[in-house]
Structure formats: C-alpha cells, structure tokens
Here is the input.
Amino acid sequence: MIRTLIFGAIAGYVGKKLYDEGKLDAFRDDLVKRFNELKQPAPADAAPAAPPAATPVH
Here is the structure.
C-alpha cells in the first residue's frame, strides 16, 4: 500500500510539473478534437437500418 501512495505522489508531482510547463496542452487539444468528432451525428446514409418488427407467435 505504501508503494501505491509513493507512486501516486510521484505521478502527481510529475503531472503538475508538465501541466505548469504547458506540455499537456497538445494532448488536451487532441482529446477535445477527438471528442468533438465523436459527438457529431453520423450521416443518414451510414446509419444502420432498424431491424424488422417482430410479430408474436400464437
């Protein structure tokens, strides 16, 4: 458990340094761009067709 705490502290320290130096901006911008591409609706002709309605068997 102590190793996990030490690793977390080191990762947090290094991450903060990278953030303060602005080295994570390109990574963030790439993530935002990909997220926005996924949010856009797909074209209507590329949408999968709905399955036919099932009729109950009596």
Q: What stands out?
A: The two ends are 61 Å apart (CA to CA). The chain is about 60% helix and 0% strand. The chain has a mean pLDDT of 82. Residues 13-40 form one domain.
